[in-house]
Specification:
The protein has 79 residues and is mainly α. The chain has one domain. It is rod-shaped, with a radius of gyration of 34 Å.
Amino acid sequence: MGRDIRAVQRDVVKNEQSFQEAIQQANDALRQISEVVKQNKATTDQELNRLEKGPSQIQENMDTARRALQKQIEYHRIG
């Protein structure tokens, strides 16, 4: 009977070790997921900033093109 108790105790220790390893693997996976989420958020924030600047950048480009065209027209009128 004593051997059965020792065998059970060994099984409990093995199960505890397996459980701790599983917890460690889960924690590692959560850290990796957290890092990916942070990277995705940073990428999303950058893309949103780019998209928000898009209309103003287009307007700025149009204004620049309009000024350049007006200068060319004036140059040809004078020349």
